[in-house]
């Protein structure tokens, strides 16, 4: 039988050929997809290995940084404690020197009031205690020098 000018046996042969071509195309597409999937999986494994390596390097760097920071913290803490100790000593010295200065100021004010009340007699006493005043003046000068250094 002839359909549209193509004999029946040729029609079935064409169907078999086209069916065979479709099967080969399908098989070829499956094979290409399989190869593409394998390549994609290989690239994915490579990316994962690289990412893991990067993370390991980052962990290593962070551990190292942490050790350095711990050492720095220990050093700074020790410096802080030393400065706190030194500061407490200086505060104690400041309190002592302030007390000495107040005492010396009271002594000087006492001599001034004697001078005002007794005139010449106080002047004589003043000369007698000149050595004491020189000593007090030296103490004040030394303490003043210390205070200037302390405040700077």
Order of strands across the main sheet: 1-2
Instruction: Indicate the structural class.
Output: mainly alpha
Main β-sheet description: 2 strands, antiparallel
* Termini separation: 121 Å
Strand content: under 5%
Helix-strand string:
EEHHH
Count of distinct strands: 2
- Helical fraction equals over 70%
How confident is the prediction overall: mean pLDDT? 79
Extract low-pLDDT stretches. Answer: none
Using the CA coordinates, give the radius of gyration.
Answer: 52 Å
Helix run count: 3
Judging from the principal axes of the Cα atoms, what is the shape?
Answer: rod-shaped
Describe this structure in words.
Strand 1 and strand 2 form a beta hairpin. The chain starts with a strand and ends with a helix. The chain is rod-shaped, with a radius of gyration of 52 Å. Helix 1 (8-118) packs across helix 2 (120-128) and helix 1 packs antiparallel against helix 3. The mean pLDDT is 79. By secondary structure, the chain is mainly alpha-helical. It has 3 helices and 2 strands, in the order E-E-H-H-H. It has a two-stranded antiparallel ribbon with strand order 1-2.
């Amino acid at each position: 039988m002839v359909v549209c000018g193509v004999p029946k046996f040729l029609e079935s042969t064409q169907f078999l050929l086209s069916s065979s071509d479709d099967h080969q195309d399908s098989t070829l597409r499956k094979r290409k997809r399989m190869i593409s999937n394998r390549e994609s999986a290989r690239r994915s494994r490579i990316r994962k290995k690289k990412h893991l390596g990067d993370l390991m390097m980052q962990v290593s760097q962070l551990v190292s940084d942490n050790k350095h920071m711990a050492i720095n913290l220990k050093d700074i803490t020790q410096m802080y404690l030393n400065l706190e100790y030194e500061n407490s000593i200086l505060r104690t010295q400041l309190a002592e020197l302030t007390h000495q200065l107040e005492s010396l100021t009271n002594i000087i004010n006492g001599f001034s009031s004697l001078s005002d009340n007794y005139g010449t007699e106080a002047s004589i006493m003043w000369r007698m205690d000149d050595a004491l005043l020189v000593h007090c003046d030296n103490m004040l000068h030394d303490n003043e020098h210390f205070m200037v250094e302390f405040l700077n």
